[in-house]
Each structure stands twice: as C-alpha cells, then as structure tokens.
Amino acid sequence: MKTRSLKKISVVLGALLALVLTLGLSSAPAADKITIKLTTVQMPKQQMGKGAQQLATIVKKELGEKVEIKVYPSAQLYGGKEEIEALMRGEIEMCFPIGSQLENVDPALQLFKLPFIFPSAHVAYKVLDSDIGTALMKKVLDRNILSLGIFTSGNVLFANSKRPLLMPEDFKGLKMRSFGRMGKDTLQALGATAVVTASEETFSALQQGVIDGMSTPNSVYLLRKYNTVQKYVTDGGMVNFTNGYLLANAKFWNGLPGDVRTPLKAIIDKVIADMRKEMDEENIKINERIKKTGNELFILTPEQVAAWEKALQVVYTKYGPEIGEDMIKKVQDRVKELSR
C-alpha cells in the first residue's frame, strides 16, 4: 500500500512540476526593447541633426518593437570632444560627430583635411569605403569606436567682412575662425591669423568683431546665419574634405543580436546614402541661396586653385609624419587610379 501511495504522490508531483514549468515559460517576459542614445552637436535643421532624426524615424517604423533611438541634438548631452569620450565609455551608444573630433583619437584621420587631396566627394567615398578606409579606422576601432558611415558636409567656404579672398595674399591681416588643428594651419599658410572657435561660439565672435571671418562647411553657413555678419564668400571647393561620421560604441554594436544588427545596418546604410546624395545636390543650391542673401560669392579659377595649392604644401610637410607618408601616398595613388 505504501509503495502504491508513493507512486501516486510521485505522479502528482511530476504533473505539478510540469504545470509550473509550462506556466513559467508561457509567462516569461518578452525581450527588452533596445534603447540607443544618439547624440550630435548639430541643430535639428542641420545635416547631422536631420540625419539623426531620419534614422530614428525609419528605425521606429521598421524595428519599433525591438529598437528605439532617442536623439539628443544641439549638444544637449555633450560637446564635441566630450561626445567621443562618452561614446568610448558606453554612456551613449551612437553619435554623429564633426569629423575633426575623431582626429583627437587618431591623428592619422587628419588625412581627410589635407588640402585638395580628393578632387571630389565621389572620389573620396570610393577611397574611404574601400580597404584604405578600413585601415584608416583601425586605431579608433581599437579604442572601442566603430565607424558606420562617413559623409561630406559640403564644400569649404571662406567668408569675411573685409574683402574678397581669391589669392593667398588676400588673407593677410585677417583674423579668421578655423575648425580643427589642420584647418588652423591651412588658414595660417594662406596668410591669415587663425583662431580655433567652437561652432556654437562663432556667430557671436563675428558679430562682436573678435574675428573678421571664418572657414566652415557650406552646409553650416546659412543655417547658423553667418551671412548676416559676413559679406564676401569664397567657395574653396575641395580645399579639404569636410566630413562627419555616424559612430557606434563597438562593444555595444557587436553585442547586438543578429536579427537586430543586420536590419539596423541596412537602415543606417540607406540614411548615409541619402545624406551623401542630399549634400551632393545642396552644394550647388547653397551657393545660389548665399548670393540671394546679398553676400558676394566667388568661385576659384584653376589658376587661383593652383596658387592655393602651392601655398598649402607646407601643410603636407607638417602633417605628413603624423598621418604617415605611406598612407598619404597610398591614397594619392588610389585617387589617380579613380580619376583616370
């Protein structure tokens, strides 16, 4: 009798255990939604501000059940250098930084700003999307930063309130704002006194006469209303490749489940392609809009470009050792191949 009772108890306990396990599995919570903090120092209407919002919108539409991107524009969380440091520490998952900020992590990335190293943005993309771009980004990847895309912020404009800037001698005696170390040395090689000023501080410096002029990507010029405190504008073309990135914390990115990372990368590729296309079209439209504001706009002639190139060779001499002479030559050789 005892044996029969024990068997019954065993059967009942087994059934109860199975029921508990079944209920437990069926009531297990769904996987938590992945939240991505995405920052940029640019305003919502600027290039990277718009790109960030476009990315968030598409992700919500296509991956809304799995992923949410929270956008923090206008340096709400961090300034430029702080933004990169926060990304490395994992305090944010992604950011759209101005290209010069990444040069603080690896000076070799100053290569993008070498005067006239790329004849066009299209050629620059072909080089940077290749094995050369992968090699250039190796050191920042070692610092837990993964590049998910690169794009130009438009031709470089040189503006001031004193006179047209067509030849290097026209820069003499002017105090001008630059962006980044090489931007500063570029202006000084052209003859100006260069002052590194943060984007958000430049307008007031121009308005108060602390500086006479500036160099800036053309996508920034009108949006920050620089046209109201400047008169003469020179389109410097590809005097350097102004760029921005979409970066991710590498550890975070590599830890994403495959069913999230793969479609998210496809969305990112689309957004970067759209940003490239839009800037390509905007390069022409921006100049027309600048002229309509009353600013005088000048396009450099081939002879003037040659004079600038000659004056700016000192920049190659100074930065060649920092960037790596071999890498510079490799890029120049690839550019020649692509330009045939």
Explain what the structure shows.
The protein has about 350 residues and is of the alpha/beta class. The radius of gyration is 26 Å and the shape is globular. It is built from 15 helices and 11 strands. The protein has helices spanning about 1-25, 45-65, 80-90, 100, 120-130, 130-135, 140, 180-190, 200-205, 220, 250-255, 260-290, 300-310, 315-325, 325-340; strands at about 35-40, 65-70, 95, 145-150, 155-160, 175-180, 195, 215, 230-235, 245-250, 295-300.
Outline the secondary-structure elements.
Layout: H1 2-26, E1 34-40, H2 47-63, E2 67-72, H3 80-89, E3 94-96, H4 99-102, H5 121-128, H6 131-136, H7 138-142, E4 145-152, E5 156-160, E6 175-178, H8 180-190, E7 193-196, H9 199-207, E8 213-217, H10 218-221, E9 232-235, E10 243-249, H11 250-254, H12 258-292, E11 296-299, H13 302-311, H14 313-323, H15 325-338
Parallel strand pairs: 1-2, 1-3, 6-7, 6-8, 9-11
Antiparallel strand pairs: 3-10, 4-10, 5-8, 5-9
Helix pairs in contact: 2-12, 5-15
